[in-house]
Amino acid sequence: MPFIVRMGASAIAILLIAYLLPSVMSADGPMAALAAAFVLGLVNAVIRPIFVLLTLPVTVATLGVFLIVINGLLLWLVSAIVPGVHVNGFFGAVAGSLLISVFSWVLTRIVP
């Protein structure tokens, strides 16, 4: 059940960001946002640990700030995979990943 709640929170976060900040990212509808949230969950579960391990020296040297870059790259990858979700460049992906993290965290704290 927690996975479904997190996926729903991510989908709502993607829709909110697409609606409030269309210069950062856009989504064609709720189904595209839900698909992007599902793929983002899979990518974070499978590919993110590999990226974190491969970039561990850089992550340690930047005191963890490089993890923001990794999250942005993974969101950019998801936008390339999922039709209907578009991210405007690398900096849009980094900003979008930060906003998705914040919105998802707030939404999961609201839902019991």
Describe this structure in words.
There is one protein chain. By secondary structure, the chain is mainly alpha-helical. Helix content is 79%, strand content 5%. It has 5 helices and 2 strands; from the N terminus they run αβαααβα. A two-stranded antiparallel sheet has the order 1-2. The longest helix is centred in the middle third of the chain and has 25 residues. The model has no long low-confidence stretch (mean pLDDT 92).
From N to C, what is the helix and strand string?
A: HEHHHEH
Record field, number of beta strands: 2
Strand content: 5-15%
The overall pLDDT average reads: 92
Q: Can you list the strand order of the major beta sheet? A: 1-2
Largest sheet: 2 strands, antiparallel
Coarse morphology: globular
Helix content: over 70%
Distance N to C terminus: 11 Å
Give Rg in angstroms. Answer: 14 Å
Query: Runs with pLDDT <50, length 5+?
Result: none
The helix tally amounts to: 5
Task: Supply the helix-strand structural class.
Answer: mainly alpha
Helix and strand arrangement:
Layout (H helix, E strand, L loop, with lengths): L1 H19 L4 E3 L2 H25 L1 H6 L4 H16 L3 E3 L1 H22 L2
Helix pairs in contact: 1-2, 1-5, 2-4, 4-5
